Amino acid sequence: MLKTSINAAILLASALPAFTVFAAEPQLICFGNEPSWGLQFSDKSRAQLLLPEQKAVDFLGQKTHLLALKEYAWRGKPVTGKGGEAVALLREASCSDGMSNTQHPMSARVSLPDGQLLAGCCRVPKPAKDTTAKPLTLEGPTWQLGSLGGSFAGIAIDAAKPVTVRFEAGRLSGFSGCNRLMGGYNLSTGKVKISMLAGSMMACPEPQTALENAVRAALSGTLAYAINTEQLSLSTATGAVLTFKAQPAATLEGVYWDVTGFNNGRQAVVSALPGTRLSMVFEQGQVHGSSGCNTYQASFTSVENRLSIGPLLSTRMVCPADGVMQQEREFLAALESVKLWEIRDGLLDAHRADGERVFNAVVSAP
């Protein structure tokens, strides 16, 4: 798979039309530090050299593939015709850029016309996202509950811990106010038939339990659905209507997270003690929040789905309520063990390197 993606990026052959200026998006970007430099390939014949405080230089050349060594040798001359050749040796091998823990798929050695020898890594840029707005469908978005109607109308909705539901490929999943929910469904014209729901079984105080029971009761059997702009309406057989809004794309940073469960260090994921709040906000390389009694802060790094937190600093207030200080110690210890994260159906799910869950969290109000 790696070799295929690299070949697709650099061996475009005749797939791209000929052009006279460096205008195409780069298909492969090679770069390095000390000094900072970049060599961008738009197809197999064109490259652009970027050096600090110098004008970009466009090169026209050709490559050869050294199959046995898994190397590409690219040799080119400036488009202007002035200056000597640049030679780049690109090797299929894991390469660290020396500035982060990111591993790139190729290493690069570049010899410039003036005699400079550069070394670094190469990456394949992600394709540009299609920003064209598309009509919403039932399947795909994460839907956040906005209102409950009918016999459920008097039940309070907690904006700090939003109820969510997601329909995808016959699988329903989400958060029902206290626990995760999951089940199956079938679609027909304007209707969705939901099978019996299952989920986690953490105990929660009121009014969360009442809300969860109402949501689970409503999301059963066959419901009629309709989508108007960004709002989803689900109507039960008794005439109760639930409305949902499509949540924006999930992001780790810049939002408030409320922890719904954390690893207490005894191979158990438990909810926060009643009357305490465990929270976190990730922004500008720092994470901070409430650990139940005190506030804490720490630096963090996140590359793709990897996450590292620490060292942690905390205020030193003592809370006399039973179990609160122990919960705080266990929660902070859990945070420092995080290695992996993902967001699915509005739930932030963090794990250790061995796959053991560290915590779950949902988007909340400040």
From TrEMBL:
Family matches, as Gene3D superfamilies: 2.40.128.270
Any matching Pfam family: META
Range of residues in the leader sequence: 1-23
The protein's name: META domain-containing protein
Organism: Aeromonas popoffii
Entries under InterPro entries matching the protein: DUF306_Meta_HslJ (IPR005184), HslJ-like_sf (IPR038670), Hsp_HslJ-like (IPR053147)
Domain DUF306: 137-245, 250-358
Keyword annotations from UniProtKB, A to Z: Signal
